[in-house]
Write a structure and sequence with these properties.
By secondary structure, the protein is an alpha/beta fold. About 30% of the residues lie in helices and about 30% in strands.
């Protein structure tokens, strides 16, 4: 059992949980993830990136968006409650070295898994240009934490409600044209955003890493649900990744496969909202 030490709501439908997991906190590295099971009887297991860790406290930080039944259930838990099962750390750690100047691009909830990578890149002595993007100001997360690590921070919103009104690829392209150009790029966010970032850096031949964690299911390589095509070869995100060369990923195939179970996911999401509403009504005192 993993007791919840802290809970925050960071944005609309985005939550942070700091939970007890001393062995994972001690062993985890940037880029790795855990499998979380909130209900050991019938619940699914979902992959969540470790957004931060405190080995001395024995805790890890998980940040998630409520998009399905399990994440909605996790959002109902509070400090003192416990998560029954957390497995990890899993996945290959991010390759970290002193590249020189690194540009890191995070979109939406992808900002959370980007955080530990930026921490590691900074610790390795890189100069960091960080570009954060969200649809609107209310969905922007971890800006203060990123500002403390970045040598240069650029914030974009689709609607212009905060920062610069632009997609993240606009400032990324401008950064790529600088002399000297960045030596390395990492981009994490929705698949379409990562594809656009990889296409932006491609003409400049800037090595670009992306994280494909959104397609994972089982997390152990047994189900095959996270297979992707990278450089014309089949790879499994949970055991071969979750990070890959963005210039080699077949994003179109990945996005097609992500929509394969949309009907079932929408049904489960709808059912989850009904269950939450019923629970709310049951708690409401009678007049």
């Amino acid at each position: 059992m993993h007791r919840i030490l802290e809970k925050q709501q960071l944005a609309d439908e985005v939550f942070l949980l700091r939970v007890e997991a001393p062995l994972i906190a001690r062993e985890r590295k940037a880029g790795q993830f855990v499998m979380v099971q909130a209900d050991t009887r019938f619940g699914e297991r979902i992959p969540l990136t470790i957004a931060d860790a405190n080995p001395s406290e024995g805790s890890i930080t998980l940040i998630f968006q409520t998009v399905g039944k399990t994440t909605h259930h996790l959002a109902t838990l509070n400090v003192g409650d416990a998560i029954p099962a957390i497995l990890g750390p899993l996945g290959r750690p991010t390759h970290i070295e002193t590249f020189g100047t690194a540009v890191a691009v995070g979109g939406g909830i992808g900002i959370a898994p980007l955080h530990p990578i930026i921490q590691a890149l900074k610790a390795a002595g890189n100069r960091l240009i960080v570009i954060l993007g969200a649809r609107t100001r209310n969905l922007l997360i971890l800006e203060d934490q990123m500002a403390r690590l970045a040598d240069e921070l650029i914030v974009c919103t689709d609607d212009g409600s905060y920062g610069r009104k632009a997609l993240v690829t606009e400032p990324l392209r401008e950064v790529c044209t600088r002399v000297p150009a960045p030596d390395f790029c990492v981009a994490i966010g929705p698949p379409i955003m990562m594809k656009a970032c990889a296409e932006t850096t491609r003409p400049f031949r800037i090595p670009t890493v992306v994280s494909l964690n959104t397609i994972m299911v089982d997390g152990t390589g047994m189900c095959g649900g996270c297979r992707v095509t990278v450089g014309g070869k089949t790879r499994f995100v949970c055991v071969d990744g979750p990070e890959f060369d963005g210039h080699q990923v077949d994003f179109d195939n990945m996005m097609l496969r992500l929509r394969a179970y949309k009907e079932q996911e929408d049904a489960a999401h709808h059912q989850c909202h009904l269950e939450l509403e019923l629970a709310r009504l049951e708690r409401k005192p009678s007049a």
